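Lecture 7, part 2: worked example. A protein chain together with pyridoxal-5'-phosphate.
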Amino acid sequence: MRNPLSDRIVTIPPSGIRKFFDIVSEMKDAISLGVGEPDFDTPWHIREEGIYSLEKGRTFYTSNAGLKELKVEICSYLNRRFGVFYDPDHEVMVTVGGSEAIDVALRAMLDPGDEVLIPQPSYVSYVPCTILANGVPVIIELEEKDEFKLTPEKLLEKITPKTKVLVLPFPNNPTGAVMVKEELEKIAEIVVEKDLFIISDEIYAELTYGGEHTTIAALPGMKERTVLINGFSKSYAMTGWRLGYAAAPRLILEQMLKIHQFAIMCAPTTSQYAAIAALRDGDKDVQAMRESYDQRRRYLKHAFEEMGLECFEPYGAFYMFPSIKRFGMTSDEFATRLLREEKVAVVPGTAFGDCGEGFLRVSYAYSLKNLKEALSRISRFVNKLDGKA
Ligand SMILES: Cc1ncc(COP(=O)(O)O)c(C=O)c1O
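Predicted complex, written out as structure tokens:
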């Protein structure tokens, strides 16, 4: 029999996040601080809207780009929160999570050999989706000394005549780094000068703790160069509803929509109705969850300081990215031993790029009770390594 598989997919490794969770799921009394998923239930009024839509028999396909009502709400939300204006009829599409939007945007924009700049550490899908879209991923290694922000120098270093797209992954998973307006302005200048396009993954836009999020699409001359990606998973605790969206200039969105049309048809109808309720009446829920994450964030920062784990202060998403370099172990060794010896699961920084070596991703999307227990176990482990126990 011939090999049924494509070389391209076989050479892509599976996500490094999953490995630990398979072990955790079989380990009694293990605590996971590993998953990047809100611990909150979807707010009840949003769930109710989903249930109501089922009761009303709204169980059919929607139009490919999504329900008009939802697209109108998305555009008014983007305008209200971030000061960008999009036309609901031509510049926004509803997708199966931000995940689909990332994939479709890359497939719509890349020709074979086009280079995509991907700052790392960052979310696990950008590199494989670039490869699957025939593009060439070019990694920009971000550093702790820059608070894991993308600097103009680092960007300029990696631009070649083949560079077409820059992925802008802020607020960042796994580092929690954010980029403020003045920093984005410098990036925008280079993007215009070098004639690049941006895929801006703003899935954590609502989860910032040091000031409001700025979207690069709102800066002068940037809307026409940006595909803005967002979704409901993180801000409204709706991961399982699988709903996100992309907003982009018509020229790009029309082509993205074709891929979505043939591959997906439309995002889940029930989820689309629920999402309308989220955007109309969900601000107070987002606010309450943000405050709770912020409380946990400050608790963790303090606890890491107390146990001598160096960690720069993250102002976005729900992750801390402490350094474990002083222990002379790889991230994978540290995480594996922590799991085996203290039954706490975290993710090695290397799951998000080679430059994540020496760091761990610790999610604080867990209850304070769980965080406290996990932190006391981590502290015991660190003391043991330091020879104090
Ligand atoms: C940075 C980032 N982008 C996109 C996604 C995809 O989210 P979803 O497909 O649930 O919208 C995630 C999920 O963890 C993420 O962390």
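The radius of gyration is 21 Å. The chain has a mean pLDDT of 96. Keep this in mind for problem set question 3.
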